[in-house]
Amino acid sequence: MFSSPPIDMGRGWVGAKPRKVRVFEDFELPVAGGRGRPDIRGGRQTVDPAIAGAFLVRVATYNIHTCIGVDRRYDPGRIGAVLREIDADIACLQEVDARRQSDRYADQWAYLGEVTGRRVVTCTGIREHRGRFGNAILTRFPVLAARAIDLTVAGYEPRGAIDADILIDNRVLRVIATHFGLHATERRLQANRLMAVLGEPLAETRRAAHAVLLMGDLNEWRGRSGAIRSLDRRLGPSAAARTFPSWLPVLALDRIYAEGPAMLRDVYVYRSPLARLASDHLPLVGNLYWSVLDPQHRAPPPVLRRRARPSVNQRTDS
User: Fold this and answer.
1) Average pLDDT over the chain, rounded to whole?
2) N or C: which end of the chain has fewer CB within 10 A?
3) pLDDT, tens digit, for every residue of 178-205?
4) Pick the residue with more confidence: 170 or 268?
5) CA distance 173 to 167
6) More confident residue, 230 or 27
7) Strands 303-304 and 284-290
8) Cβ contact 219:180 at 8 Å
9) Do 285 and 59 contact (CB within 8 A), yes or no?
């Protein structure tokens, strides 16, 4: 278990008790190692010479809406099936529920880790009448350290982020999973807080990261004129892909950022029929390439227009 000391939130922040961050590693895991080449089964693609042959990690961010679908049905099995279809090496989830009733899905973190065969890093955030829910990171790679970042703004509901160091082929990737608030002022303060955290000196017990990956539901519908601006200045522009609502996406609420020699490419929205039903958000997926180049003044990664890979039970013989 990893936990963080109290964080000085500064003016305008609630002095909340530090949230517990838990890491579960008792599931059967696939062999770590990532992917050697891009998946081009959806059609021919031109591979940038700068990333040709680079180490590839598939990443995804997904607001699972506490496993309640657009049909108002509570079904964690559908979310697990979508995650298995995507098969991300690192997935950041929002609105993961830990319910009070004792049923098979009482702890969604543990269930989703079990069905995907991934390590799970959890952090509870919002509490309401049904129980509590927050962020989670699912990863096939070892977790070196993790801590909770309190992003709660006075007068608004609790929000937070997970700050985890993940070991990939002897390199450290710093992964931040977050979920911003619903109000413009709130989001601006939360974005500034995250950027301040990234600029803080590391604790002596933490290894310096080779690259940074930030993913989550930023709830920013105003594009780059809102809280996105400070993130773009620090991490470079992100792809604006429409993920909400899942049945007819018109808003780019979910974002993926990458900084350092890990370059983000092949960003797309996963639009399978099951994904459209399982949550009110669609998953946002991308490929992270480890490159020896220092990316300066990068353009936002293009959004691919691709169809979702069918699940096994959706395939038919021709």
Assistant:
1) 78
2) C
3) 999 999 999 999 999 999 999 999 888 8
4) 268
5) 6
6) 230
7) unpaired
8) yes
9) yes
Q: What confidence tens digit (pLDDT) does each residue in 63-76 have?
A: 999 999 999 999 99
Q: How far is CA 176 from CA 110, 139, 158, 162, in A?
A: 20, 13, 17, 5
Domains of the chain (ranges, CATH numbers): 2-299 (3.60.10.10)
Percent of the chain with pLDDT over 70: 68
